[in-house]
Amino acid sequence: MNKEVLFGPAGLGPTKSAIATLEAFHAQGLRACELAFTHGAYIKSETDARTIQKRAAELGIELSIHAPYYVNLNSDDPVKRAATKQRILECCKVGEWLGAKVVVFHPGYYREGVDRIQAYTVVKEGIIDIMKELKKNKWVIQIAPETMGKINVFGSIDEISRLAQETGCAVCIDFAHILARDKKVDYALILKAFPQEEWHVHFSGIVYGEKGEKHHIKTGVKEWKALLAHLPRDKKIRIINESPDMVADAVVGMKLWGKL
Ligand SMILES: [Zn+2]
What we know:
- The protein has helices at about 20-25, 45-60, 80-100, 115-135, 155-165, 175-180, 185-195, 220-230, 245-260, and strands at about 5-10, 30-35, 60-65, 100-105, 110, 140-145, 155, 170-175, 200-205, 205-210, 210-215, 235-240.
- By secondary structure, the chain is α/β, with parallel strands linked by helices.
- It has one domain (about 5-260): Divalent-metal-dependent TIM barrel enzymes (TIM Barrel).
- The strands form 4 sheets. The protein has a 4-stranded parallel sheet. Strands 2-3-4-6 form a 4-stranded parallel sheet, with helices on one face. A two-stranded antiparallel sheet has the order 5-7.
- Helix 3 (about 80-100) crosses helix 4 (about 115-135) and helix 4 crosses helix 5.
- The longest helix has 21 residues, at about 80-100.
- The chain is globular, with a radius of gyration of 17 Å.
- The model has no long low-confidence stretch (mean pLDDT about 95).
């Protein structure tokens, strides 16, 4: 059974042009879009959000959200950990209005002198707290910690896989980050680590060194082909392109997928 693979960019742009932008994505065949709340949840009005939700649903475009970059569930400061949860929950509130499927976030940093097992425990507690709030509010949106590209940042395949298994949270599998962190992409291992029926995926070209990710670059056709060839065929998958040319690259990926 070949399930759906949806392609789209990591940005919708300003609220006032959101409907026109969604229509332009639709005209190109794109069916996913991640809103970049990376500097904060910039959509403030519920009316605006619900208008965008309605049009995206009509166009068959699935929305997701990227939470602010400055969150850290593993901060040594409890005030900062609480603020992180609040920021992610704010994204969830607006995401619920938007009908978005997931809020993707970078879980946090490892702490000097604190081992990785302890870091895992703190991040897991934070995720459980956020999920309790989602339940309390009866929100259906899910939170999705992301596999991270730098070796000194929380978010290995193993850590994200365990978080999902032990808390029931969703995941964001960033294949470019995995390559930068592990220097290889072990598709069989990833498939085993993430048995979920639905995958939320990030992808782009990437420049990396010993310590992992340096920056994202345009997605090569060769890289696209390698990813698409290895995608499981029995899952629903959203692939968000994060390259500097994300709309064009998402269209290239979508067309290559259509030829497989
Ligand atoms: Zn990210």
